[in-house]
Amino acid sequence: MRRNAIRSLLHRAAVIAAVLLFSLSLIPFEVSASDPAQQPAAQETASQGTAPASPDVVPEAAKEWQPPATAEKVQMRIDELQKEMDLLQKQREDLQKEEGIESEMHRKLVVALGGVQNAYARYATAIDNLSRAKNEAAEAAKTEGASVIKDPPPYNLSFYDGVRNQLEGVDQRLKSVVSSVTLAEGALKAIPEQIENAEKKVQTIKSELESPEWVGNKEKEMELKEAEAELEAFRLSLAANNMNMDAHALRRKYLEAQKVTLTKDVELVGENLKYDEEDLNKRVDSIGEEITVVRESIAKLQAERERIRTNLVRSQGQLNAAKDDKQKVQAAALVAERDADLKRAQAAIDEREQKIVQLEEGRRIWQTRYRLVNKDIKSDELWDTRSQVNSRLKDLENTFQVHQRSLASLQAELLAAQKELAENEKDKTIAPRIQRRISSIEKTIQLMNATVAHAFNLFNGYSRLSEEIDSRIDTVRIAAQVTRFSKERILSFWNMSLWSGEGFNVTVSKLVISVFLFFAAFFMSGWLTRLVGKTILRRFRMDPTAQIATQKILFYIFMVSFILSALEVAGIPLTAFAFLGGALAIGIGFGAQNFFNNLISGFILMFTKPIRMNDTIEIDGLFASVEEIGSRSTHVKTFDNVDVLVPNSYFLNNNIINWTHTDQKIRQKLNIGVAYGSDVRKVEELLSKAASDHSRILKNPEPFVIFRDFGASSLDFTLFYWIDMTKASTLKVGSDLRFRIVSLFEENGIVIAFPQLDVHLDSGSPLQLAMTRGQRTASVEPDREQVSEE
User: Fold this and answer.
1) Short-list 345, 301, 338, 340, CA closest to 316
2) Could you tell me which residues come within 8 angstroms of residue 445 by beta carbon, excluding any fewer than 6 positions away?
């Protein structure tokens, strides 16, 4: 008994020594005296215990706990904690061996120290995470705001997908960072309260140890060490979370900047997409080649599946033929192994088939997207395509759920197999089969995940196609809404009532149709009138004036007929204009007076024919030829080729000379004077000869000469001759005659007279004249100069 008591005493002494060593190990590496409330409990315990205080630390001064600053110090602390945990574990095992006592106090302290060790490991990870975040931010800052687009537009779909994949990758990372920030913020809200509770717990235990009844109580001291370990773990969690928050903030900042830049790039590329047949064919050909390779692999997998199925059937036969329990267990393990192999083979085939589905549908998606770029899909087909895409997306979502249930079943099967392996670990026959079955199940899970990945890629392709279709539909819908809104407004205005009465309603549409039909009637009437004039009237050999008059009458007849028909087609009765009768009468009486005056005068000119087409007329000394008699004015052209429009009423209200009203022959005269002393008969002969020699002067009536008068300086003669206005020009004929007369007079010595004046000077004495060289005038005595004229 005494030996046992001594042994127990020595054991307790060892435990107390271990506790004291653990207390010393809990002293932090770096301390400061800035916050009394944050003074670590370990430092207080150390200062109150047997450990000597550091000479550079003031006793009882408030200390602020700080975590290790470097990864090396963190690792040193983790190693120290491991040593303490190993020592406590050894003491716990010794107590159990020697006294058969399970020390709960040791177990709790070991668990607490393990928690501190894990906290330091997380803290080291946070240090590394912050360092990597700083490096990533520094690299991102070098290219911040720089576009990934290097080439000018246009772009093809492959380039667009590349830029968009970068954007989606950055967006996924940003969402992950935001989720991590949310989790970290939730943890940071709880940790300060946990630290506060842990500090209160430490202070409470310390206060209890100061009381006489707890002084020297080892269990209470172990409880204090456990509380201090929990406090250190909470503080490390706070520091690690703060570091992670800093890392998340750095990543969030540069990821948001990258997202903004990539978003602009995607918009720029999307706005400048162009149909690229080379890119389309390249992708289609690549997918076709990949499909061929996958189909070949499926054939090999199917052959392997048949081989496994055959082996499975044999194994099932062996199971049925087993005689004892041992053989049945071994045969059942073999059947389970080969069944797992068969499921793996089937999963491999399913994965390959899903790959083919993804490639074939991906090819159609690619072609459809290029059709959208090229705007080859019409509105109706666009809506049908959208419906098909949405239906396919729902099918894929259902496929994900089926795969998820299959994966859950495989996970359960894997856990069961692992449990079975643990139970039969020592069986050298069954354990390898179970291990191979576990391997097959794990490969089946990997193949199932690959199948899900193929379906997910296909889902992403359809989602992208759906977005592009929706964008195109939005454009079409906006255009349709604008069109519908404009159509409604136009229809509302089109059907707006202008005036109405009993049995009629005149709307804008009817009025516009009437105006259109009016102009159509105007052109149709003109066309029909010209057609009648060219085909019918010419056969009657009517003169141009009568022909024009007939055409004008027909024009107005056709016009009135077409207008009445237009009003009837538009549904506007003549009674609708009854209220306008008075206003129209007043307007005709005042505003249209001149118009109707000229209009009626035109018809009078056409029917009475005082002037006709091609007549030569004289208006206020202006000679002109009549070109056309219109409804309001008459078009005449002077001999100087000047067009003049004369109102029709002018011909009825003024004196007009019509040189060719009854006949195209007109008489012209030419006046000429010869000097006194000339042979007048010779003059007459020469003038007659000049007229008769001219080819344009008519021979009948015959030209004749009149000796008109004895002039002051000449003997005056007049030559009368006739010309046909349709064949000769009065000015040209007159000019030819003058040239001929001059020539004949010179040949016969007859002088054309010119004005003469005789001056007679009567003077009683001679006139004295003085002429000076170089002077232009001569002086004459004015008192002796008398001039008279007889």
Assistant:
1) 338
2) 407, 410, 411, 414
